[in-house]
Design a protein that fits this description.
Blueprint: E1 7-11, H1 16-32, E2 35-42, E3 47-49, E4 56-58, H2 61-83, E5 88-93, H3 96-107, E6 111-115, H4 121-126, H5 130-137, E7 142-145, E8 156-161, H6 165-168, H7 170-181, E9 184-191, H8 196-214, E10 220-226, H9 230-240, E11 245-249, H10 262-271, E12 276-279
Parallel strand pairs: 1-2, 1-6, 2-5, 6-7, 8-9, 8-11, 9-10, 11-12
Antiparallel strand pairs: 3-4, 7-12
Helix pairs in contact: 3-5
């Protein structure tokens, strides 16, 4: 069964990155005829409003709410003009990641698309970015983008694969997205060492992935890389093939190598200049994302 994207949630802070995420979401929504929800979360603290410049500091809640509603209406109207889609607008107050997760559950969204400003130093070590928190908590797939991802649409998709079962869960979703965008898939086998037995086992898995893609008629390439820092190797490869999307699993990318788990997943989401689609093993509970299709063996 094809991946059904009927409702897309776009959290925004009205920054350049947040508005770029809306561009990506709107482009996809127009392709698949999905509904858009545009959400702004007001933190429970003194409010810093970034648009217009210079930054405004506002303490009156009624004034804040009025400005937010006005900005949401302006952005929604621009989206309708540019893409023919009028987003549903929502605003709420609280911790950003928690509120995004709650709205995603209440609205039964199929995908979240959001910008990430990244995080550095102690902030990343201790709490990470809001984007990474959403990726960790959300009950659905999440696409994160940074300001570098100006090009809309995903025509070169990197599909990192190791020997874990969870790693192969993303194959069907990668095929679905590649079909939507008419993309080329880049199968990337990942190895930590030169062990010939491990290499042979990985090649068997890559054969299966390649066979699944060949049956769809999509174009693809196939590569294997080895290294001590496989997350970095995957990002480097993405740059080499001019990728515009990398697909990762959030929780259990590899029980063998630890690739993209925990801190490494955070690094990918926070620092990748290439948009990242983060998928959870088994997807959660949304019926619109059915994994019972022909590729479930992976």
């Amino acid at each position: 069964m094809k991946m059904q994207i009927k409702k897309i949630l776009v959290p925004t802070d009205f920054s350049e990155t947040g508005l770029l995420a809306l561009e990506h979401a709107s482009f996809l929504a127009r392709l698949v005829k999905a509904d858009l929800i545009l959400l702004h979360v007001l933190p429970v603290s003194e409010y810093h409003f970034e648009i217009p410049e210079p930054v405004m500091r506002i303490e009156n809640h009624d004034e804040i709410n009025a400005i937010v509603e006005q900005k949401l209406a302006e952005v929604a109207d621009a989206t309708r003009t540019n893409y023919g889609i009028l987003p549903k607008t929502m605003s709420t107050r609280g911790k950003i990641a928690n509120e995004v997760m709650q709205i995603a559950q209440d609205e039964k969204v199929d995908l979240i698309v959001m910008g990430t400003h990244g995080a550095k130093g102690f902030e990343e070590l201790l709490i990470g970015s809001n984007a990474h928190k959403v990726v960790s908590l959300a009950p659905c797939p999440v696409i994160t983008v940074q300001t570098h991802a100006k090009k809309l649409g995903f025509t070169n998709i990197v599909l990192p694969i190791d020997r874990s079962v969870h790693s192969r869960e993303k194959v069907e979703r990668a095929i679905d997205l590649a079909t939507i965008y008419n993309s080329k898939l880049h199968i990337l086998g990942l190895l930590e060492n030169d062990d010939e037995g491990e290499y042979a086992k990985l090649q068997v898995i890559l054969d299966q992935v390649q066979h699944a893609i060949e049956k769809t008629g999509l174009t693809f390439s196939r590569h294997t890389v080895k290294g001590d820092h496989l997350a970095a190797e995957a990002l480097k490869f993405g740059v080499t093939v001019e990728a515009d999307l990398i697909i990762i699993m959030t929780d259990h990318e590899s029980a063998l190598t630890g690739l993209f788990m925990g801190p490494l997943a955070k690094q990918i989401v926070n620092h990748s200049r290439i948009p990242v689609l983060s998928l959870k093993p088994h997807y959660g509970t949304f019926e619109s994302l059915d994994l019972s299709g022909s590729y479930s063996a992976f």
